Amino acid sequence: MDFFVRSALGCLLASALGAWLCRKNERCAAVTGAAGAVLAALIIFAGSTWAFWHHAFNFYASFFQLVVALVGAAAAMHAIGYLAGEGGKKFCAFWSFYHLTFGAMLAVTALRSFIPFLIAWEVMGLASFFLVMLEYENSENQRAAWIYLLGCEAGGLLLMLAFALSGGGSAAYFYLLLAGFGLKIGFPLLHVWLPEAHPAAPAPVSALMSGAMIPLGFCGLFRFMPHTSACFGHAGWALLILGLIGAFFGILFAAGQSNLKRLLAYSSIENMGIISLGFGLGFLGKAYAHPTMALLGLGGGVLHVFNHAVLKGMLFLGAGSVLRATGTLQLDEMGGLMKKMPVTGRCFLCGAIAICGLPPFCGFTGELLIYIGAFSGIAHCHGALFAGALMTAIVLALTGGVACAALAKAAGGAFLGEPRTEASRNAAKEKLSMVIPQLGLLFLALALPLFAGTLPDVLHLTGKAHHLLSVVLAKNALFCCVFYTLIVLVLAWRRRAGRDARAVGTWDCGYARPTGRMEYTASALTQPIADQFDTVLGTKREVKEVSGLFPATAKILISCRDAARNFFWDVIFHGFARFAEKCHALQSGYLHFYIFMMVLALAAMLAWGFWA
Amino acid sequence: MTALTEILLALLLVTDLSLAVASRLLHSIKIVALQGWIIGLFPLAAWCWRDGMPRVSFYLIVAVTLLVKAILLPAMLRRAMYKAEVKRELEPLVGYSLSCVIVLAAMGMAFWFCRYHIALPNEVPALCLPAALSTIFTGLFIIIARRKAITQVIGFLIFENGITAFGLGMMLEYGILVELGILLDVFVLVFIMGIALFHINREFAHIDADQLHFLRDDEKERGAK
Q: Where is pLDDT greater, at B177 or A364?
């Protein structure tokens, strides 16, 4: 741990104490807490800048610290507004655990040896568990938090197992690491805690967890996996396959959700998939000596980690603002929020466009590198590698398409059109403290493509590789400049020309009294996709059909449960529960029987000791 | 001296068998006391007197073992028995003839196991390990298969005797020291058990350990289901 991380941790500690001391005055506590987080982030920025100028920028440490600090500061500022009116007790709990999580995340990036790393990792999981549990009055949230804790602890156990085996540096070690960190990252099958914990957690915590905590899994994985060619091969294939599945199915499930934060959580799974596609390509390139593919894949992965942090932070904060304004997260109960929350709405819209990988925002830059990497693989590789690169390009394209639909659903359903319910009609105004961090992140999202040119220096590249990456990024920056100029010109022109605003009923072809409830719902936007992938999504619909000439009521309720949970974990856990239920018979209460079981166990151990 | 140790160990085996079929508690306690004598005298029999006299601590250990195992513990058990007013193990969970067969089978297993799976150093009597294992097993068996709590204490003592026989017979370097530690534990345990037995008896008017399952926590929930 260097000087900067230490002082950031000290700053967080002081601020948590300060927030506790002024717990009587809510406003004072909030400002103290947020100020501590922002100050810690500034210290980290200073450290990164210092490291950058002194050529000591360590990718694992400094880069991920930057990501953590960025999201941590933004989310802390948002929390001032988000938590207003929650009461002093909760306030204290929030700020102490928030700072603990934040500090543990910084420590995770900074620690290099197993045991301290593992301690920081566990603290991070436990502290964030309490944050997820913050709104414990709701039993749903409690359940989600317990699932989250299970996920964290299972991951920790796997890591301990891996570290216990670490002498070997074998394939088993790597796969244990992959599973342990994968539980945090949310690889397919291991992702089940994500869509549960994110909707339950307060929005700043979701932002912190989704933007910064999940990618820390990659940080840990790369730090502790053996850096040998054989391991790069394993890692490449594993990440590529997990990425292919995670990206596509993540976004597919996102499209099926009707809860805004759950949708964003699935989108996080998708983005982790895209990141692992990039890293997978990179490792495969390294293992099979394709430097171009390696470079572009790794570069794309790194950039996308940063992009995802910025964008997902922004989107989750936006979702939090919406929740505070309307009191609901159900997309079908929102609508028309753009008029009430103009800044939040525009930020969310930009974030949604960016996270789909559409130009000119930062999301595009990362995905562009991965695409070019995949294309170079297609052009120069043969056999399995060719197939992998081809699949990457295809799945990335497919994912991008579905992502557009899913996020159009989120942004459109929440902010566009007319309010569908009273809740969204009477939405509260947005608060300054909640808007500023979103604007800051939006600025970053816009500026990142222009400054992505520093990436080759961040990765300590030289010579040809430096040149290759610089050229791609410079072209992208140029393109973005042109695009931004065009957008500004169009906006200026429209402003000059003036806009005539007319109020007309929504979609009133022949209806006497059109209302907001008649417009397309968010579910309707993605209904074709939901129908197409019915078998995968396991869409359940409850329909009460329209019947008769004067139908009284009709309704349709579409829900989509997580396939991994439904078909995999539930089956396993229920089977285990049944087994445990059977074992309960052993607890008969008869002393003799217990002693008998103990003797049996002893005898078995003796036999094992002699024959094994 | 080998002959004497073998005789003592054979006697130990015989006491095991007779404990398996003993129904009167007083009888059991007497046999346990006899086992205490056998085990206490065993080091004296096993010592190679030709090579010289043992140290003073050796005699001390023999004296303490004899005092605790052959005199104190049986006396405490007898006291507990009179206080609890139980004389017999009336309905054992496993019948006496079956018990005898099981203990015999266990002895056979012990001999087979020691013969084929353990290489012993020459100075250890060949009978020592099987006899010790059989005694341990008999103790465990009596704990499992008898109903009265006091019989289970007896079973525990037999079990402990087996461990002592094992330690003494193998002439482990620190075995005697460890033995003394265990002896202290057992002493305290039997002391406490004696008091507990008295109180259990006064509360429930019996000391049947198999009735204890009525005290189980979830009994009411189960009934509700």
A: A364
Interface confidence: ipTM more than 0.90: no
Task: State the average pLDDT over residues A156-164.
Answer: 90
Would you say residue A427 lies in a domain? yes
Shared-domain flag, residues A151 and A88: yes
Asked if the structure places residue A62 within a domain, the reply is: yes
Q: Within this chain, do residues A150 and A283 fall inside the same structural domain, yes or no?
A: no
Same domain, A94 and A112: yes
Do A437 and A313 share a structural domain?
Answer: yes
At A278-336, the pLDDT tens digits run 999 999 998 988 888 888 999 999 999 999 999 999 999 999 999 999 888 888 888 88
| Total domains in the fold of chain A | 2
Q: Which amino acid is at A400?
A: G
**pLDDT, tens digit, for every residue of B97-118?**
899 999 999 999 888 888 876 6
| Structural domain harbouring A426 | 227-445
pLDDT band at residue A130 under the 50/70/90 scheme:
very high
- Amino acid identity, residue A482? V
Same domain assignment for residues A101 and A139: yes
For the stretch B80-84, contacts whose Cβ atoms lie closer than 8 Å and that sit 24 or more positions apart, written own/partner, are: B80/B150, B80/B153, B80/B193, B80/B194, B80/B197, B80/B198, B81/B25, B81/B26, B81/B29, B81/B150, B83/B194, B83/B197, B83/B198, B83/B201, B84/B150, B84/B197, B84/B198, B84/B201, B84/B207
3-state secondary structure of A558: strand
Among residues A409, A429, A445, the one where a domain terminates is A445
DSSP state of B216: -
Q: What percent of chain B has pLDDT over 70?
A: 85
- The closest CB to that of B143, out of A590, A595, A610, belongs to A595
Tokens of A393: 């390009």
**What is the phi/psi pair of residue B184, to 5°?**
-60, -45
The number of domains in chain B is 1
Q: Is residue A474 part of a domain?
A: no
To the nearest whole number, what is the mean pLDDT of chain A? 87
Give the residue numbers spanning the domain of B27: 2-224
- A588 closest CB neighbour out of B145, B209, B213: B213
Contact A157, A164 (CB under 8 A): no
Q: Is the dihedral of CA B199, B204, B206, B209 positive or negative?
A: negative
* Confidence grade of residue B224 (pLDDT, cut at 50, 70, 90): very low
Task: List, for residues A33-92, the tens digit of each pLDDT value.
Answer: 899 999 999 999 998 888 888 877 777 788 899 999 999 999 999 998 888 877 667 888
Radius of gyration of chain A from its Cα atoms, rounded to whole angstroms = 25
Q: In terms of pTM, does the model score above 0.90?
A: no
Judge whether A359 lies within some domain.
Answer: yes
Interchain CB distance below 8 Å, A610 and B117: yes
Cβ pair A589:B140 closer than 8 A: no
For residues A392-416, average pLDDT: 92
Q: Do A173 and A162 contact (CB within 8 A), yes or no?
A: yes
- Judge if A296 and A410 occupy the same domain: yes
Question: pLDDT band for position A370 (50/70/90)?
Answer: very high
Give A588's contacts in chain B (Cβ within 8 Å).
Answer: 213
Q: Is B140 at the interface with chain A, CB within 8 A? A: yes
For residues A412 and A522, the answer to whether their CB atoms sit within 8 Å is yes
pLDDT at B100: 92
Q: How many A×B Cβ pairs under 8 Å?
A: 27
Among B117, B210, B219, whose Cβ lies nearest the Cβ of A591?
B210
Mutation site for A-interface testing, chosen from B144, B163, B214, B221 by largest number of A Cβ within 10 Å:
B144
Q: Does A596 touch chain B (CB under 8 A)?
A: yes
Q: Are residues A261 and A186 in the same domain?
A: no
Final residue before a domain boundary, out of A183, A208, A226? A226
Note whether A207 and A278 are same-domain residues: no
B91–chain A Cβ distance below 8 A for any pair: no
List of chain A residues whose C-beta atoms are within 8 Å of the C-beta of residue B93: 592
